[in-house]
Design a protein that fits this description.
It is built from 34 helices and 31 strands. The protein is α/β, with parallel strands linked by helices. It starts with a helix and ends with a strand. One of its GO terms (biological process) is response to other organism.
């Protein structure tokens, strides 16, 4: 009755015309909600203390509190009459939280408890969706109010009432109310079942999590206890007996986590092994054993493109050509295949034409696989467990990192007992060592030693128990981030930033008063990496941060055990329907991998997984355009939709009905435009349409996506690329905008549209493809407010594109507007005339100049005092590089001029010595087709007084010259450099011949440690 009465009131109000009555009723309903708000606020305070509570339950309660407060604060009311239902829901969830710690531990040995927890997770997911629907409706109503403001307060109240209680919203309100009631009934059943288990009620515990920053990140790269094994494998590979065999197959066999891959990596990267083989190839195989995929990976490792090859025969023929007459080492890591027929054809192609002594090194958990791959009995090495001392050494190097001698003395006895429980498994020692690295109290170490998880009776439980301990030590939000990684297939390499965006889309990361979601995500990623949940890191050369990694097989298995019936990945190989049928219809996250290019359709079974929150497609399914509308219509709960490189030509308009959608990746498709209905997706956080080479425009109302944080539109290979970007100025939450297109016409996008985007960080490319009418237009961008921008790229269109633009005026107008923390600048297509840059470039560390097609002299870059890296390419009219480049003698005053200060000067007894390029470490010239003379070298020695009285490039470490066919000589100040470590000359035949060993320039440069001459 409560719901029907509320609906009746709504309908009556919709037809009322007397404003006073409406206002009175509105205020009554408004203030009746305040007692309930205080209950929820108190509840939230208690949630902070309950770290062991299920994260999804906490999210539901936080959502409830947020929505109710939002309704009152914004004076927008959409659901009336559900107070009692929400109070009941809150009470039930509180009762569940009190016993959750006991339930989590008991699920390890009691399948009924595990089933109960799965039910709880399922209903929490559904409740989260309902609350998200409720919150989205509030946001839409409030957005419409803001679009149509009223000056008169009374009119505002009237308008709000009528906008909120329009007839078309009645059904939505009723639907939300009924869903809450239905979910409460499900929760009632879960609470009743809870009582049958007689769980122990846990005390409120505050868990302290140490997120200490360390001086250096431990990758645990030092390997313990495998020196003997490494020597045995090397002997097999390098021995004379190997030389007599056409192709020898050596297999490393052992259980998961014992260190097979680590041993293979040690051997693969050994200097003797590297010298012995002409080619080394590493392929991660995993399951299923896909001959075509392996063949493509081999070709790519041999530096041959395989993307356009489909037929196995063609792939194998190409492999034969590349290995003919070569001695190679092929590592096949993580092989599961026991069907020898799948291996024979590939092995035969590898055998044909290779030199004797070539070898294949296989890692596998199964001795039968080793036999199947052709390893003889003497070529199979079964890895033993680590000794007690070796296991302790590996454990202790991690557990005692950053601990002093007193702490080590207090904990060593307990530590040795914990290390003994690892039973010689390297991954277990590594996992527990990483866990205890963050714990310094004796009680914490004893808790790990005495935990009940050591009693788990399950296959390979020796590694499962340590992983459980590490997992349980994580905060609840971090647990969800880790377990989400189960959506990826084994051996999948994922990028840090891409993973963080996926976490954000699922609501795992919450913005705090002091930290953005992205910062929280990076801290979570680093914490998981530090605890050895991730491995095989790719790191940034600059700051050493991890940008890509993967999970160990056993860690991946563990993550999947946590998310059974929740996450799955599937390879499409012709039997996809039967594979997907085996998964629960309540599955929430899925990744579908297409191995065959355009041959397999999207499985129809996907349409029935109506509760999917994540759909990630990797590969190119056939008939995707036909399947997409139905797919979107069925999967209404989606929060992540990743359809990169799927051949999509048109995005259906019904995508606007996916109200929960937060992450959309449509990159590398054939889309021309996006439907306006996408602008109804108020929750959108990430939109990626990069490399959609046919894309002409973004939706005109894209400014409605006020929560959008990441917008990617770049297409780096297309100089004439232009996307109409009206309305971007309203996206004030943007953190990432990789490319902005300036039309200059005033009708599409102007540089001034950037003025409100003050949260932008990282890199921004601005393309000028139209006229800039005056300097004030550039100033409107207010780049000085973009405090987090570190890289700026300015790309100017060709002269035919812009008859009126003045490049010099643009650069000068930017001077007072530059981002304060800018580190690097790229300028492409510049056609100005000034010989030197404006002074605002002084502080830059990296400068890249590309395709200045009309410029005959390089600017005075030697004067930049902070410059460390310089790239100059595509300067087709530059024939000579002289003193003006160094900043010496410019404007006729010993290198000094009024526009820019000299980099550095040193005092001597007789004069001031000018230092040109004082901090330059890396210099790269490319594509200088007419460049003949570099002053200071042979053929360019005239008038060198200023040069030799100066200090030039005192910090230079690397010099690369590519595609400079006419350059005759290098300057003496480069040849005589005592700091130069790397000299590379590529497709520059004149100087390339000079610096080959024995060439006329060799004596002058032979002191340089690394000289590479490529393609003369």
């Amino acid at each position: 009755m409560a719901f029907s009465n509320a609906l009746y009131i709504h309908q009556v109000i919709d037809h009322m015309k007397h404003h006073q009555i409406i206002i009175s009723l509105f205020l009554f309903l408004l203030f009746s909600y305040y007692p309930f708000i205080s209950v929820l606020s108190s509840l939230n305070h208690s949630l902070v203390l309950k770290n062991m509570a299920d994260a999804l339950v906490s999210v539901v309660l936080e959502q409830l509190s947020s929505i109710i407060i939002q309704e009152v604060q914004q004076e927008v009311r959409l659901v009336v009459g559900v107070e009692n239902e929400v109070k009941k829901l809150t009470s039930n969830f509180q009762a569940i939280q009190a016993v959750f710690a006991d339930a989590e531990e008991r699920q390890l040995k009691d399948q009924l408890v595990k089933h109960w927890l799965d039910q709880l997770k399922d209903v929490s997911y559904d409740m989260d969706d309902v609350l998200d629907e409720w919150g989205t409706a509030i946001a839409k109503s409030q957005s419409k109010l803001n679009e149509h403001p009223r000056k008169n307060t009374r009119k505002v109240c009237s308008f709000m009432i009528f906008s909120c209680f329009r007839f078309r919203e009645v059904a939505l309100r009723r639907d939300i109310a009924l869903k809450i009631k239905e979910l409460n009934e499900r929760i009632d059943g879960i609470v009743i079942e809870k009582n049958r288990f007689h769980f122990k009620s846990s005390e409120v515990v505050i868990k302290q999590h140490d997120h200490r920053k360390t001086v250096s990140f431990i990758d645990a790269a030092e390997v313990k206890g495998r020196e003997t094994d490494k020597g045995r494998v090397k002997e097999m590979l390098l021995s004379e007996s190997s030389q007599g065999q056409a192709l020898r197959t050596i297999s490393l066999v052992g259980m998961g986590g014992i260190g097979k891959t680590t041993l293979a990596q040690l051997v693969y990267n050994d200097p003797e092994v590297e010298t012995h083989f002409d080619k080394r190839i590493w392929v991660c195989v995993s399951d299923p054993f896909d001959e075509t995929k392996i063949a493509k990976a081999i070709l790519e490792a041999l530096k041959s493109p395989a993307s356009g090859l489909i037929e196995s025969q063609t792939l194998l023929e190409n492999i034969q050509l590349l290995i003919r007459g070569k001695k190679f080492l092929l590592v096949l890591d993580d092989v599961w295949n026991e069907d020898s027929t799948k291996w024979e054809q590939l092995r035969n192609s590898l055998t044909c034409g290779c030199l004797h002594g070539s070898s294949i090194l296989v890692t596998t958990r199964n001795r039968n696989v080793a036999n199947c791959m052709g390893s003889s009995r003497t070529d199979i090495l079964e890895l033993e467990l680590l000794s007690t001392d070796e296991c302790w050494s590996l454990f202790s190097q991690l557990a005692f990192f950053d601990k002093n001698s007193r702490e080590r003395g207090n904990l060593e006895d307990i530590g040795r007992k914990i290390a003994a429980k690892c039973k010689g498994l390297p991954l277990a020692a590594k996992s527990l060592g990483s866990l205890l690295r963050f714990k310094s109290r004796k009680e914490e170490w004893e808790s790990v030693l005495n935990s009940h998880v050591w009693e788990i009776e399950e296959a390979e439980s020796k590694i499962l128990a340590p992983l459980w301990l590490s997992y349980n030590d994580l905060p609840s939000d971090m647990r969800r981030c880790f377990s989400y990684c189960a959506v990826f297939p084994k051996d999948f390499r994922f990028g840090r930033d891409a993973l963080i965006k996926l976490w954000m889309a699922q609501g795992f990361l919450r913005k705090t008063q002091n930290k953005e979601m992205e910062v929280m995500g990076r801290e979570c990623f680093e914490a998981l990496a530090a605890r050895s949940f991730f491995q095989d890191f790719e790191k940034d050369e600059g700051d050493g941060s991890i940008y890509e990694c993967k999970m160990h097989d056993m860690v991946h298995d563990f993550a999947q055990s946590l998310t059974k019936n929740e996450c799955f990945s599937v390879d499409i190989d012709g039997a996809a329907e039967s594979k997907i049928d085996s998964f629960s219809r309540d599955v929430r996250h899925s990744m579908v991998v297409f191995r065959n290019y355009k041959t397999d359709p999207l499985p129809a079974t996907i349409h029935s997984l109506k509760k999917l929150r994540s759909l990630i497609v990797d590969g190119y399914p056939s008939s995707m355009n036909a399947a997409l509308p139905k797919l979107i219509a069925n999967l209404s709960c989606l929060r992540t939709l990743k359809l990169s490189s799927c051949g999509i030509e048109e995005v259906p308009s019904n995508i606007g009905k996916l109200i929960h959608l937060r992450h959309v990746d449509l990159s590398s498709n054939e889309i021309r435009e996006l439907p306006e209905e996408m602008c109804e997706l108020y929750n959108m956080l990430t939109l990626d349409v990069s490399y959609c080479r046919k894309l002409e425009r973004l939706p005109d109302n894209i400014g409605r996506l006020v929560k959008l944080r990441h917008l990617s539109v770049a297409n780096y290979g297309a100089d004439s690329w232009f996307v109409k970007m009206r309305g971007v100025e309203k996206l004030s939450s943007l953190q990432e905008l990789d490319e902005f297109h300036v039309s200059g016409s005033g009708e599409v996008s102007n540089i001034g549209d950037l003025r409100n985007l003050n949260h932008l960080e990282g890199s921004l490319r601005i393309r000028w493809l139209g006229d800039v009418k005056d300097r004030d237009e550039v100033k409107k961008a207010e780049l000085k407010s973009k405090k987090h921008l570190t890289h700026l790229r300015l790309w100017f269109g060709s002269r035919t594109d812009r008859e009126k633009i003045n490049d010099d005026e643009v650069l000068e107008a930017l001077e007072p507007m530059t981002p304060p923390n800018l580190e690097s600048l790229e300028i492409r297509g510049y056609e100005g005339v000034i010989p030197v840059f404006p002074s605002w470039i002084n502080k830059l560390r990296v400068v890249i100049l590309r395709y200045w097609e009309k410029i005959e002299k390089l600017p005075a870059l030697g004067k930049l005092p902070s410059l460390e890296e310089l790239t100059v390419c595509g300067m087709e009219c530059v024939g000579r590089v002289g003193r003006e480049f160094l900043g010496l003698g410019v404007d006729g005053e010993d290198g000094e001029d009024s526009d820019i200060s000299i980099g550095e000067k040193t005092s001597s007894s007789s004069s001031n010595t000018v230092i040109a390029f004082p901090k330059l470490k890396s210099l790269f010239f490319w594509g200088m087709g007419e460049w003949e003379e570099w002053e200071g070298g042979e053929g360019g020695n005239e008038d060198k007084t200023n040069i030799f009285n100066s200090i030039i490039m005192p910090s230079l470490r690397s010099l690369e010259i590519w595609k400079c066919p006419k350059l005759k000589a290098l300057p003496d100040y480069v040849l005589q450099s005592t700091t130069l470590e790397h000299l590379e000359i590529n497709e520059s035949p004149i100087i390339g011949a000079q610096f080959k060993a024995g060439g006329e320039g060799w004596p002058n440069a032979s002191h340089t440690p690394n000289i590479r001459i490529i393609r003369l």
